[in-house]
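We treat protein structure as text, and this decision shapes the records that our systems exchange. We quote a single record here, exactly as it is kept in our systems:
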Amino acid sequence: MNTDPHSPPSPGSTTSESPSNHYSEVPTEPIPASEILRWNEHMTRRKHFLSDYERYNPVQNMHALANHVFDLSESVHSISDQVAVSGRTLGFVQEHTRDTSESLRSVGEELTRLKGDVEGLKGEIGELRGLFEESRRETQQGFAELKGMMQMLMGLRA
């Protein structure tokens, strides 16, 4: 007995279903244009493949297929090597990113410490300026007193 729903019933078959009953179960929604385009491209590639297949004898086809499989295998190995190199490069970048982050953190801490030192130095410079000005005033005052004493001594001598 034939079990294919698309083939006509065999003469000994007792089913009363017609082939149109089977087709009524198929959805009748319109096919999207992208799906039609994909199907047409598939059929074009299939026709091209079959025309190539008919052009060569099976031994040549198997040889061509083996060469194609080998080429694809080599491509896979090449891609695998490139992925490995990319992985090593990524590891290198991640490691150096961590090192850079630690260095930046260290530089930031050092910068903060140096800012505090600079602020302290600014305060000390201000104190030294004050001491210098005070010393200068005292020196000028001392010179003025010496000048006055010298004039007094000169006045007594004359």
User: Anything to note?
Assistant: Confidence is low (pLDDT under 50) at residues 1-8, 10-15. Residues 34-157 form one domain.
